Sequence to fold (368 residues):
Amino acid sequence: MDYDTPLFFHVMSYATDADRDVIDMVSGNPDWGSPPGIAEGLHEYADLGGEDFQYPPSEGLVELREEIAARRDVDVSQVVVTAGGGEANYLAMARAMEREAGDEFILTDPVYPYYPGKTTMLDAKQRFVATAEDGTLDPDDVREAASEDTAGIVVNSPNNPTGAVYDEESMRELVEIAEEYDALLVSDEVYDHFDFSGKFTSALTFDSDHRVVTNSFSKSLAITGFRVGYAIFPPDLVDVAKTRHMLTNVAGSRPSQYAVLHALRETTREYYEENRRLLESRIETFTDALDAAGADYTTPDGAFYVMARFPDFPGTLSNVEKLIDEAGVAGMPGEAFGSSRDDWVRFALVTPRAEEAAERLADYFSDR
Fold:
């Protein structure tokens, strides 16, 4: 089976090798720093030694799983701590296929590229549902695409790349569609702390045996390198997922989990609120510069990405390389996210140089 190398790696390598200063707006690595509890937890862990340096329980440290379960109002047995949100999504999608209730995933267009990549790994089929211009998803379109072949429906809210946030009614209907077609709704909620609209609703709001919620601390605690995520499964589906996790990874990183647990207990609400305010300010500054560049763009209700479409400048890989070479700004080509936005470019606003990048883009397109 052939796998395509993610386009992210190509663009990042091209930007790194450029003969000029380039502002990275490709990767979603938060720049605002982790809360103090992360470093404190690591220092505390370093002094433990002995048995605490050995394998943790495969499904995650008991105390961390208990903390997650309490915060999400589920039984601790339903929680599997994973190697980031990526593994959580893989386990959930694999579980959908193992139910043998279909062999097709419904995905949105535009889509986070790793979802279709995982369908390829799982030897599954793909069916795409286009979102609205603002990135919102109409559940009626999902219902129309669903069939007896549907194994799973994969959604991401707040959304990468559009910044859309699915409200309570949309999420309720998505859960109902999964139940109606005996499919599994996989709700990736990794950006749940970055909701600017106040409309975000977790799929956990609705009691159902047909939904799995995945998440990660990579973005919310600014620790993408720690690789600590989790999945919450229905009781009847969790045991097989734990087995697949054990066979794939044996267990996750014990020091990372220990530090995350310490940070969850010590971090105040102000940390998350301050980061949201920072992002809202960056979004306003960046989109003002896009106005100056004559671009169309999405104003995100959540997450930290902006998609932009520049006049006579389709978001192809070659044009993204041209932006790197001539403007010194690296974004992601729209074609990486599906066919509906292949003339757009996605920018991640997780750099202190976001305002400078916006000025570079405005200057570049005003001179064209």
